[in-house]
Amino acid sequence: MALLQVSGVTKTYGPLKALDGVDLEVEAGSFHGLIGPNGSGKSTLLKAIAGAHFPTTGRILFDGGDITTMPPYQRARRGLSLKFQITSVLTELSVYDNVLLALQATEGYGALFRSRSRARLDGEVMAALERFRLAGRADDLAGELSHGEQQWLEIAMALAPRPKLLLLDEPTGGMSPEERRVTGELLAPIRRHCALVIVEHDLDFIKNICDRLTMLDQGRVLGTGSVAEIEGDARVQEIYTRRV
Amino acid sequence: MTATTGAAPPVAARRGAFRILPAIELAVLALLLVVPFLLADRPELITLLTNVVILSLLALSFDLCWGFSGIMSFGQALFFGVAGYGVALVGRDLEFSQLWATLPLAMLAGGALAALLAAFLLLGRKAPTSIFVAFGTLTGAYAAERLVAGWQYVGAGNGLSAIKLMAFGEYEFVEGLDFYAVALTALVLVYAASRTLVRSQLGLVLAGIRQNEERLAFFGYRVQVFKAVVFSLAGMVAGLSGALYGYHQGFTGPSNLGPGLSTTAVIYCLFGGSGTLIGPVLGTVAIEVLSYVLADIDAIRQFWPVLLGVVLLVVVTFQPTGLLGLAVSARERIGTYGARKAAR
Ligand SMILES: Nc1ncnc2c1ncn2[C@@H]1O[C@H](COP(=O)(O)OP(=O)(O)OP(=O)(O)O)[C@@H](O)[C@H]1O
Ligand SMILES: [Mg+2]
């Protein structure tokens, strides 16, 4: 069975159908790209999977359990992690503390009060920072990082607790081409332990790192398949040429 | 809540930077230890100082809520007042006032009541807004004040006077240096525990909640439960404060658990600087001492509350980080957690 299974998910805002009977399957360890024009429902779908809101109808299964209406903290504990479209690192905490916060979420109240895991987690925090080229900035406030660095920090935070599935909404938004390339390199190795659902407007970027693509348009799935299949799909081409 | 961080100094400069908060904490402690001996022949000032120390605890309880966890509580006096009535009633009806039992029980009562209120206000199915919590706590304090004001058993509008003196074995505490010593011990213990809390990894979670509680849920934190725990702890501190206050004054009345005193605690904290622990203590000292001095000057005896009001208004509106914000950098206010320096 697939790691993530979204079936018939609909989300309505008043008369608007932001999602309309969406199906999506993601296998463990695979990278799945979500593409589609502005307003097609990509973020709405990621939020439904993360638990930021619940679908109007439909079901979401994750790692063998039904998470359709499970609160976000329980989904996180089951191995779901994310970065939303709007960057939300904690700007008034140090870079180091941001990652520590992401790592210590499963500790009990007493252990947190006694700061018991602090020394034990130090290595993991620094490893996560090193991986995303932020080790030298551990003591800076997250708010002092550049926009691109903040996105990396947020990905580092999302990956630190070793999730089974990572959801990324436009992680390269506002990045320079060079930063974009590096982001692709940083994401590639996580495949060994983590599946990825990623939303990106940059088609070249997403083609390079993803195994499969799903194209959304007006809340509906236009097509799902390998990168080559989706690229070759006439309807997809039509929408992409219309858009560009 | 905290100032923007755009103007923070570069890292290198910051690492070895002199930390001013611990210096302020030490200075305040030294003052509180020394000043009473200098005032030994002015009993009315010892009484004032004892009140200040006791009310600092109340202000501290508000800082734990708002300054550290983003819980806008306008009802801290509720826990304070209930504890005050509690010790008064236990003294009157059971003729018991041993501090080793009544003070912990007062804390338990304050904490339990806060936990109950938190269950309603914080632990609902949907995360509450701060406005909802502010109105909820305010209403709780208001309702409690009205309730006791109309309740004969607890003295109705007159409150309860001639509270049995706080005792330890045969020894009874009247106003004066001994009572001051008990109050100061309570403050130091609570302060030390709070300091450990806010600088621990738990304090880091609270700092995260204060900034973006929605984001923290996606890491796996049960945000509202954390808030409820801190709110209950703060209720315990307010309860301790209320019990000491009742014993010290020998009196408790409806206004001791209403919105008026709750708001006073808010002002102590904002005036001194919220989110610092020492800020609310300084704020309480400053406001109470200022009131005492102003009320004693003949020329302004008629209108000193107006003067005080203007001073408070200016500080709270133009200096959102309070008096302490003038001396302490934003970076130091944010701090580090879980003894980071020691670990590396
Ligand atoms: N909270 C909301 N209330 C009402 N309408 C909403 C809400 N959130 C999203 N929508 C609408 O739902 C539709 C899908 O929005 P969504 O953010 O999922 O698009 P998207 O594919 O992520 O677009 P973009 O590429 O611009 O990020 C849009 O028409 C949007 O206006
Ligand atoms: Mg979007």
Automatic annotation (TrEMBL), chain A:
UniProt cross-references to PROSITE patterns, sorted A to Z: ABC_TRANSPORTER_2 (PS50893)
SMART domains: AAA
Annotated ranges, domain ABC transporter: 4-243
Single Gene Ontology MF annotation: ATP binding
Cross-referenced InterPro entries: AAA+_ATPase, ABC_AA/LPS_Transport, ABC_transporter-like_ATP-bd, P-loop_NTPase
Record keyword Transport present: yes
Pfam family, one: ABC_tran
UniProtKB keywords: ATP-binding, Nucleotide-binding, Transport
Protein name from the UniProt record: ABC transporter ATP-binding protein
Source organism per UniProt: Belnapia arida
UniProtKB/TrEMBL annotation, chain B:
Record's bilayer topology term: Multi-pass membrane protein
Regions that span the bilayer: 20-39, 45-66, 73-91, 103-124, 131-153, 173-193, 225-245, 265-294, 306-328
Keyword Transmembrane helix belongs to the record: yes
Cell compartment(s), UniProt: Cell membrane
Principal subcellular localization: membrane
Keywords: Cell membrane, Membrane, Transmembrane, Transmembrane helix
Source superkingdom: Bacteria
Entry-linked Pfam families: BPD_transp_2
This protein's name: Branched-chain amino acid ABC transporter permease
